[in-house]
Structures are given as structure tokens and as C-alpha cells.
Amino acid sequence: MSRVCELTGKKAMVGNNVSHAMNKTKRKFDANLIKKRFYIPEEDKWVTLKISTSALKNINKLGISAVMKKAVENGFYKK
């Protein structure tokens, strides 16, 4: 499975390692992802999601139902 947030669509970015001599080599910045279980009371079931930590902060602030609804509207999560 790819390392992509299921709610926000965040994924790895590409950049450079830069040495003291300014030599540049390619590297990858992975998204900060965690695997977490959530209970959705409207559907009365548990859902396991691979989400970024910034998405987890949004869930704590807005609630899982609101964040999942927004993710469905943006096309990142399919019911």
C-alpha cells in the first residue's frame, strides 16, 4: 500500500540532501503517517485509516464525521 493519507491525500515529496560542499543528491520526504482506528457513531462501526498526523489534529478539532465528509467531497476517501 502506498504511503498516502486517506483523508487529505498527502504523499511523499522529493527534494535534495545538500552537503557542506553544496553537493546535491535526491531524497524523499515521506508524509508523517499513522494507522488509527475510529468509531463512527452514525454508521455504528469501526474504521481503520492510514492518516497523516495533521489530519489527526483536524479530527480532534472537528470530529471524525466532519473530516470524513469533507474528504469524500474532495475525492480522497470513498465510502
TrEMBL record:
Keyword ATP-binding: no
Record keywords: Ribonucleoprotein, Ribosomal protein
Domain of life: Bacteria
A Pfam family: Ribosomal_L28
GO molecular function: structural constituent of ribosome
InterPro entries, A to Z: Ribosomal_bL28 (IPR026569), Ribosomal_bL28/bL31-like_sf (IPR034704), Ribosomal_bL28_bact-type (IPR001383), Ribosomal_bL28_sf (IPR037147)
Annotated GO biological process: translation
Cellular component per GO, a single term: ribonucleoprotein complex
Family assignment from sequence similarity: Belongs to the bacterial ribosomal protein bL28 family.
UniProt cross-references to PANTHER family, sorted A to Z: 39S RIBOSOMAL PROTEIN L28, MITOCHONDRIAL, LARGE RIBOSOMAL SUBUNIT PROTEIN BL28M
Annotated protein name in UniProt: Large ribosomal subunit protein bL28
Organism annotation: Lutibacter maritimus
